[in-house]
Specification:
- The structure is a single chain.
- This protein has 128 residues and is mostly beta strands.
- The chain has two domains: 1-58, no CATH class; 66-128, no CATH class.
- It contains one helix and ten strands; from the N terminus they run αββββββββββ.
- A ten-stranded antiparallel sheet has the order 1-2-3-4-5-6-7-8-9-10, with no helix packed on it.
- A hairpin with a 4-residue loop joins strand 6 (71-76) and strand 7 (81-86).
- The longest helix is centred in the first third of the chain and has 4 residues, at 2-5.
- The N and C termini lie far apart (64 Å).
- This is Insecticidal toxin protein.
Length: 128
């Protein structure tokens, strides 16, 4: 009876390996994201294959992590490298920089927090 009242739903499918790591996601349009993980189970790269194509596009790759499992660096599909710096005491993000493929600084954000961990200020040091 409800089938007559409700439109046909859309479906997203996920695939996982034996360790529970996500391997792929197929959306309702048939686009497929593939996820690769390192030995420690950390996400290493994400690729996208659009529906009805065979060409994979890299969304992000070369994700590196620190000893606290926080991303330190990653490379976007367009070659932009993002680097993350964290406070050694509380693990909060203190700096996020983005560098173009030729190494020029696109963005350099510095974060300040109050004692409760709320962001007080974000300063873009790459801007004059």
């Amino acid at each position: 009876c409800d089938a007559l009242l409700e439109p046909v739903g859309l479906q997203t499918r996920w695939a996982f390996n034996a360790q529970g790591e996500d391997l792929a996601q197929t959306d309702a349009n048939g686009n497929v994201q593939r996820f690769s993980h390192g030995v420690a189970g950390q996400l290493h790269a994400v690729e996208l294959t659009l529906a009805n194509t065979a060409q994979r596009q890299t969304l992000v790759s070369a994700i590196h992590y620190d000893a606290f499992n926080q991303a330190e660096q990653e490379t976007a599909g367009n070659g932009v490298v993002s680097r993350y710096v964290y406070d050694q005491q509380d693990g909060r993000l203190t700096e996020l920089s983005a560098l173009s493929a030729d190494g020029s600084v696109l963005q350099k954000l510095n974060y300040s927090y109050d004692p409760a961990g709320n962001v007080l200020l974000i300063n873009d040091a790459s801007q004059p």
